[in-house]
Amino acid sequence: MRHTIKAHKLTELILEVFRINGAIINTGNMLIEDLGITSARWQVLGALKNGPITVSEISRQMGLSRQNVQRIANRLIQDGFIETIENPSHRRAKLCSLTLLGEEAIEEITKRQIVWANKISEDVNLENLEITLSELKNFRFELEKQHEEK
Length: 150
Description:
There is one protein chain. The protein is mostly helical and about 150 residues long. It has one domain (about 5-150): Orthogonal Bundle (Arc Repressor Mutant, subunit A). It is built from 6 helices and 2 strands. It has helices at about 5-30, 40-45, 55-60, 65-80, 100-120, 125-150; strands at about 80-85, 95-100. Helix 3 (about 55-60) crosses helix 4.
């Protein structure tokens, strides 16, 4: 059995997404290493930027396992970046919330990310970027739909 031409190109795209994900994580780690925060921690802090949510909600937003997010959240709590607060909607599932230290960290991270994104996007064709983004979103929606059907 062989891939169709489209399936072969899709497989190449998937492999490239894996590579770019690794490069993005490494770049993110370098961008914020002096803050004592990793890209994984950045993801969790970023998910809390708009207000308190549960670990389960963070995991759904980020497409990560709940257990991994819980492990990261526990470390962020220990280091004073987030805290848990009572959840009026659920007795057992506490809400995670940024502390003042967490708010300051995500503000600094955001500043650095803006400078980095502005610089790296200087020579990127906007139309191609929009098409790529649209296609990746469509592909993710298809994967999520497939997952929901099972």
